[in-house]
TrEMBL record:
GO term, biological process aspect, one: cell redox homeostasis
Name of the protein: NrdH-redoxin
Pfam family, one: Glutaredoxin
Organism: Malaciobacter mytili LMG 24559
Record-level Gene Ontology MF annotations: electron transfer activity
Residue ranges the record marks as coiled coil: none
Domain Glutaredoxin: 4-61
């Protein structure tokens, strides 16, 4: 399984949805709060993501909570 990182912000409904979705699919992930980690925020912005959540699967950046892209990258249905 590819490593998964979930970049989130506090009180973000879409971040909570992404977290719940990954958990429901039993996907292990590392959660990073970009309000506390400015380097992570810069990485997200460098890859064209200006909102939250941002999901990094392997070396593929997904801006926003996009189930279709997440499933494709992880090879799940």
């Amino acid at each position: 399984m590819k490593p998964v990182a979930l970049f989130t912000l506090p009180n973000c409904k879409w971040c909570d949805n992404a977290k719940a979705y990954l958990k429901s699919k039993k996907i292990r992930f590392n959660q990073i709060d970009v309000s506390r980690n400015k380097e992570a925020l810069k990485d997200c912005q460098k890859h064209g993501c200006n909102g939250a959540p941002v999901i990094l699967i392997g070396n593929r950046w997904i801006c926003g909570f996009d189930k279709e892209k997440i499933n494709k990258e992880l090879g799940i249905k």
